[in-house]
């Protein structure tokens, strides 16, 4: 590919600065050409720190830049719909942070806008681009661990003291299910290749944090008597494991979603009483994500993970939040 796709970053969020932009800098197919903030000084400072050529003092100015091919949106959840639609209307392809929207209806509106504009819209679940997940899917399909009996996963971190954090704003789409619970939900759907039938979730809603769910635990039922048991939280010790249980074996991924060290991409397979380490070459999942999107854009092909998947994931998140609020099992 002779010409790299030019990316514009809509906002100076932490995830953009510490992960997505560095990942784009490593790409052979993409480059970061501009960044925008409603605070012009902040945009300029971030551009200087991260070697970005152009800084804009408004989101509108970035969308008006005809040289930009792709917009990355790391804004708070309640702003995803508005700016994804505006980016689509400006003719830009879009990578939007997870979860795609506040609910499945919003997600569907965003997908429709992208389709009408003829641009690609992708949800930023970077973990899916790690090569081990294709390996794990093949292991399951081969019967290496027998018949699937269940999946367990979790994603928790401890940050209750950051009172200004957007994750603690209910109307902005705050809460642990939106922020990290979406990962176990996504990976179970990815590995099983099917959609859940019902969910039951218990959550701790914290009055100190605008009544968002600071911790949640749930059961997500799939057909065939297989279920995901998960927990997620923003007021608990950090961890992000995944366990896939079969009749004849177990697959364990100690760090299922975060791969910030060479060994964190490895996983274990236990069969016939023997537990073996499967080593996987280290990759930057943010780079892999951007490159996959670039290949779809330049090749005119479908996304590796279609945005319709984001709508389906949002339906499960909607059901989880409803279950937690109403203390009830919710059918999907």
Q: Classify the helix fraction into a percent range.
A: 25-40%
- H/E element string? EHEHEHEHEHEHEHEEEEEEEEHHE
Proportion in β-strands: 25-35%
Number of helices: 9
Q: What would a concise description of this structure say?
A:
This protein has helices spanning 14-25, 40-49, 59-63, 80-89, 104-117, 132-142, 176-192, 285-299, 308-326, and strands spanning 5-10, 30-36, 54-56, 70-73, 93-97, 121-124, 148-158, 198-206, 212-222, 226-233, 235-239, 242-246, 249-253, 267-271, 274-278, 330-331.
How would you explain this protein's 3D organization?
Belongs to the Gfo/Idh/MocA family. Residues 133-252 form the GFO/IDH/MocA-like oxidoreductase domain. This is Deoxyfructose oxidoreductase. The structure is a single chain. By secondary structure, the chain is α/β, with parallel strands linked by helices. The chain folds into two domains: 5-127, NAD(P)-binding Rossmann-like Domain (Rossmann fold, 3-Layer(aba) Sandwich), CATH 3.40.50.720; 130-286 and 314-331, Dihydrodipicolinate Reductase, domain 2. 34% of the residues lie in helices and 29% in strands. The protein has nine helices and 16 strands. Strands 7, 8, 9, 10, 11, 12, 13, 14, 15 and 16 form a ten-stranded mixed sheet that branches. A six-stranded parallel sheet has the order 3-2-1-4-5-6, with helices on both faces. α4 (80-89) links the parallel β4 and β5. The mean pLDDT is 97.
């Amino acid at each position: 590919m002779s010409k790299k796709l030019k990316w514009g970053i809509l906002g100076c969020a932490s995830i953009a600065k510490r992960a997505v932009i560095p990942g784009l800098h490593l790409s052979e197919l993409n480059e970061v050409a501009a960044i925008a903030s409603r605070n012009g000084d902040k945009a300029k400072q971030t551009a200087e720190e991260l070697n970005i050529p152009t800084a804009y003092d408004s989101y509108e100015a970035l969308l008006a830049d005809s040289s930009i091919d792709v917009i990355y949106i790391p804004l708070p959840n309640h702003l995803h719909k508005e700016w994804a639609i505006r980016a689509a209307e400006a003719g830009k392809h879009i990578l939007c942070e997870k979860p795609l929207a506040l609910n499945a209806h919003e997600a569907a509106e965003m997908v429709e806008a992208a389709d009408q504009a003829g641009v690609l819209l992708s949800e930023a679940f970077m973990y899916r681009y790690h090569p081990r997940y294709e390996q794990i899917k093949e292991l399951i399909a081969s019967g290496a661990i027998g018949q699937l009996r269940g999946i367990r996963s979790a994603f928790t971190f401890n940050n209750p003291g950051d009172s200004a954090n957007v994750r603690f704003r209910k109307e902005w789409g705050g809460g642990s299910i939106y922020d990290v619970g979406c990962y176990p939900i996504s990976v179970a759907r990815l590995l099983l290749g099917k959609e859940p039938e019902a969910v039951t979730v218990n959550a701790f809603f914290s009055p100190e944090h605008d009544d968002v769910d600071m911790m949640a635990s749930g059961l997500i039922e799939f057909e065939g008597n297989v279920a995901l048991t998960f927990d997620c939280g923003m007021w608990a010790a950090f961890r992000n494991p995944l366990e896939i249980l079969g009749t004849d074996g177990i697959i364990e991924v100690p760090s299922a979603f975060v791969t910030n060290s060479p060994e964190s991409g490895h996983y274990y397979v236990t069969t016939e009483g023997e537990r073996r380490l499967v080593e996987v070459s280290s990759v930057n999942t943010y780079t892999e994500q951007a490159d996959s999107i670039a290949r779809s854009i330049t090749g005119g092909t479908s996304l590796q993970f279609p945005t319709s998947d984001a709508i389906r994931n949002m339906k499960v998140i909607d059901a989880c939040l409803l279950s937690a609020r109403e203390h009830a099992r919710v059918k999907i």
